[in-house]
User: Fold this.
Amino acid sequence: MVKKYEYQPSTVREALFTVLVGELRDMVKLLQNYLQDVQGNLGSKRIGSSPASHRKPDVVDWIQSVVLDPDLAQRVYSEMDLLEQHALSEIVHEPLGELYPAKISAKYGKYPSLHEPRRGDFLEAHSLADKRVFCPLLSIVMARNYQFARDAQEVYRSFVPEPPEPAPQYLSTLPERLTFPSGEATEEFSVHSMEQRALLDVQTMLNLVAQSKVGVSTKTGRVSKAGARTIREALSQGDYYGPEAEGLDPYDVQMGTAGIIPFGWPLLLQAGKLAQPEGGKLALTRSGRAALKKKPHQVLKTLWERWLKTTMLHEMNRIEVIKGQKSKKHPLYAARKGRECLDEGLTDLEPGQWILVSDFFRHLFARGDAVDVVRNAWALYIGDPEHGSFGFAHIHWDHLNGRFARAFLLEYAATLGIIDVALVPPWGAVTDLRGLWGTDGLTCLSRYDGLMALRLTPLGAWILGKTTEYTPAKPASFLSITPELTVKIVDPQQAAQAGSMLERFCIQEDASTFRLDAGKAMQAVEQGMSPSEMRDFLRQGSSGELPEQVRSFLEQVEQRCSIFRIAGEASLVQCSDPGVLRDVLNDPEIRKLCLPAGEYGLVVRKADEEAFRVCLHKLGYALPLG
Assistant:
């Protein structure tokens, strides 16, 4: 987490008065040595060689005059080493002059320390590991305060150039071996191209929901075990990991029946207002039925924009080993801010360029916008609230916020086709568990730890607003259609997605063969599928024009499906006396409001029911309620 400082000193003098006298004397000695070398180059302008006295006010006044002298300030900047210049550039152009060590370290590989380490102290022991470098001139200019004084900031901003924009560090090509953070190389990684999968899977999911095949909890909206199995079988390429992929130790992190993609899709549809739970199943909303007629990439964009704002789920909740998330101490911020940080970070990427996840996270820090969803780390823990707390000093960003980011990227960004991903099994992939209390039986913290690299897709660039147009690549033909109205799936990889679509308006004859059927087609029309959608799907799946018999079949469906329509609701009214029924039908006013229905019945439209009652009253009859 990047620390924010709330107060900026107005003057260097104000900041210097917070420094101990011993440190002020060290600063004076350094400046005196420095002035001996540069005083002759300052022309006629002279600076006192020492403070007027050893009193703190005089020492502070002398240092302030040195730091704020415009000529000397430029000379000081020129004498700084490269890290000090980079750091000063970042600091003076921050609105409040803050020093963000994590941002500078991510951008330049090292970060400045304003305090000189002493032998044997904690700072010296960790300076190499933390890439911390003592910067004496920067320390003096900033008065050893982590915020630049406003008067000094104005002086240095006039000549210090603005810092360069951070640039993501891409891989030239995805190597044959990926390296774990521990340094160990692995050859067992898989690449998942998600763009075409998402375009197919979103149609599959809408079709499954239209057929009431996705079971969910009515309380939480999360997919049931049976629903997850149905989704896994229907998806074009299943989940990232097979159903057999689980931790060897029962106490280790488990993938679970719902997995990753089957868990994410139902929540995405609900967050996008395309589906809602009804009686333990997902059902399409009016927007969901309209989405069946939209282009898949338009639906995916809607789902992404709405997921960024949803409160249905906090991605940290998917890291089950981290307890205390629902504590009364409210340890987590809303997920929306973290999602937006990742959304902006993904927008910086170039489509088609692979980047390691660690380098992507480093880029988030370099742009000064790292994910921070943890309000109170002390309330989060593993195993024991006291010993296993995440509030201790050795806990770093990746333990909590990094897991949130991985869950969001893999379960939602990749599922929607925004990024392609390179994965390894999560167990043992991120070796940052050492030193964490209560992790003896764990080899990872989450099922998302296997995310090693990602790549922005052309679809993702369009969804994120980097490009204004998107044209989906035409998929290879996967259907064989005969004049006998038979449709055969010829591409096994498309079997699940194509089958879920075909079974809506065809009769299934075997695992890969379907036959067009008028009854099924009419049933599909009643469920919201238009004949033009059937025609478009068959055209997209086949390599040539549809046979004449198939075109004729679809034309008949289109003609016949519009012959009948629901014009409104009506009530069936029964009359026990045929004579009275004849009198009613002969009345000039009342016969305009009803139609005969058999020997003893009348049909009255709901809209005319009140007027029908008034006419009955005039004839001396009543129509009891119910």
